[in-house]
Design a protein that fits this description.
Elements lengths: L6 H18 L3 H7 L4 H13 L18 H11 L4 H7 L12 H12 L5 E4 L15 E5 L2 E5 L13 E7 L9 H5 L7 E7 L1
Parallel strand pairs: 1-4
Antiparallel strand pairs: 2-3, 4-5
Amino acid sequence: MHFAMTDEQRMIVDTTRAFVAAELYPHEALVERTGHLPMELIREIQAKAMAAGLYAANMPEEVGGAGLDTLSWLLYERELGRANYALHWTCVARPSNILLAGTEAQRERYLYPCLRGETWDCLAMTEPGAGSDLRGMQASARQDGGDWVLNGTKHFISHADIAGFTIAFMATGEEVHAARPQEKDHGLLRGQRHAGLHRA
């Protein structure tokens, strides 16, 4: 079996690595020192990332992304990960893939503005008593007519300060009965955990 990178993957790695060195590394000291990423700088780097074809590269070609296969995407992410998280995630945004599951109307409202760099999404999972453990979430949502009423607390949400909307993970069901030990081991859920969109 051949494990070497393809020519295209090598190009992706080289392009991303060069971008990180030229456009992200020079600003790391400022971000680390001040804890702040000025919007003017975000927009400047964002425009360069779009010109280089690196912005929203995790998205399929049919919606305007680069259409990277899984391995190429991971190689791209590894190179971006060499820089400060605030710089690479904000300035070279990769919208959440869950946005692809929306209707066309939802894509127009949420996905495409992210692809165009007009806004950002953020994932709200972490709670005071639960991190990425969705089964441990206490925040809930109940339907009220055509709306959803959210109840609970989310915190430590990356990019909530600039996001135009939140993808909020909420419990919408009840446990039917306590899962047996073997069911817990296999991660079988009796309740439901849903992600929904919420304007910031």
